[in-house]
Amino acid sequence: MTSIEVRNLTRAGKGSRPLLDDVSLTVPSGETLAITGPPGAGKSLLLKTLIGLEDHTSGDILIDDVVVNAAGPRRRDLAMVFQDYALHPHLDVFDNLAFAATLRRGYDRRELSERINDVAEFLALGELLDLKPDDLDDAQRQRVALGRSLVRDAKAYLLDAPFSQQSERVRTQVRSVTSQWQQENQRTSIFTTNDVAEALSTADRVAVMHQGFIHQVGTPRDLYERPADMFVAGYLGSPPMNLVPAFPMGRQLVMPLATMLLDDNLLERIGERGVVVAGIRPEHCYDATGQGGQAVTDRVEFTTRIDDVEWRGSSQFAYLGYDIAPQVEDLLNEVEDLLEFDLFQNFLVAELAPESSLRPGMSIRVVIPRQRVHVFDPETGENLTLAR
How many Cβ atoms from other residues are within 10 Å of residue 101's Cβ? Predict the structure, then answer.
């Protein structure tokens, strides 16, 4: 088993912003780390830098506590799945699966053949072993590239968006069997994905990356329930956290639709800020007349009109609109421009129980547990709700 550590890794860009911005990560032996973030976040560049295909400006890469900055890709002995697959067109599927493993000395032919057939079977490639890459579709080619990496014995495995070409039904199966294979073989793995749900459901820990910067690393539950900053809060979740402007007034926090009493700790952390951002997950909004709403004791409560309803079967989304003052909207736009990411809307999404009878235009009383409301600094993005 192998550990990977990245210390203050930086890659300068052409402009003022680095392509990799002081990235630090630790992946213990046998762990699976998912790196998620929007397209262009720097995820692929980070993996290529780890394997030794891209240079970095400063910082260190350690494999099993040994600095490998000067080592080439072969000496680092990391297996990687590339987004362009990098298959050999003149080789059939079997030989493509075997290729990386046969480059290493001392392999056992019979053992390798058995491993290839095992991997081909669970990746649904068993009947395609005699075909060439040109005979396959993109999803099959991607599974061949993934299988080639899994067949090989390497120190660790770097998988760049390894499931992106799979249909939704197949993707779940491929992801599951790949994770099981890696876990059974106690392999250290890092994979990238734009799919937040995939990252949260598959990895031991998740790193949220944007603009070359790692915003937070933690278990899926930690990131979801205790986002370190406003970007993590707004990026994770489907639908994502509602982020609304809020104004501290005495011991109260005045939001567009509701007012919340501030406790001493949160009041102290807010300090002299004249405006903050309140974060509320859609699933933490309850219909006050329903069983969930009636069970909430320490509550934030408000009544408003429903603009629209989306039925989802197991739940339904109610869209609750509100107005934003022009000067506040300008501030929020500046935050989005800085992050190059849309965080704010002029409505709140409430994910409510399917048994609630909802329709556009009707009035609804909504209950939110007070302890579920996050408060962020709009300038730094810091989650002021978290204890320091």
Answer: 19
What percentage of residues in the chain have a pLDDT greater than 70?
99
Residue 190, strand partner residues: 33, 158
- Half-sphere exposure of residue 230: CA atoms within 13 angstroms, side-chain side: 26
| C-alpha to C-alpha distance for 341 and 36, rounded to whole angstroms | 14
Please list the residues that pair with 159 across neighbouring strands. Answer: 81, 191
Cα distances from 201 to residues 40, 122, 282, in angstroms, run 22, 20, 19
Report how far residue 292's alpha carbon sits from residue 213's, in angstroms, rounded to the nearest whole number. Answer: 38
How far does Cα 27 stand from its chain's mean position?
16
Residue 364 is inside which H or E element, if any?
strand 363-369
In which band, very low, low, confident or very high, does the pLDDT at 85 lie, cut at 50, 70 and 90? confident
The number of C-alpha atoms within 13 Å of 133 and in the hemisphere containing its C-beta is 18
Position 302, amino acid: F
Contact 232, 200 (CB under 8 A): no
Q: Minimum mean pLDDT among 3-12, 131-140, 262-271, 285-294: which range?
A: 285-294
375, 246 Cβ separation under 8 angstroms: yes
Among positive and negative, which fits the CA dihedral 381, 32, 62, 19? Answer: negative
Rounded to 10 degrees, what is the CA torsion of 232, 234, 236, 239?
Answer: 170
Q: Are 85 and 91 in contact (CB under 8 A)?
A: no
Phi then psi for residue 189, to 5 deg, are -135, 145
pTM of the model: 0.93
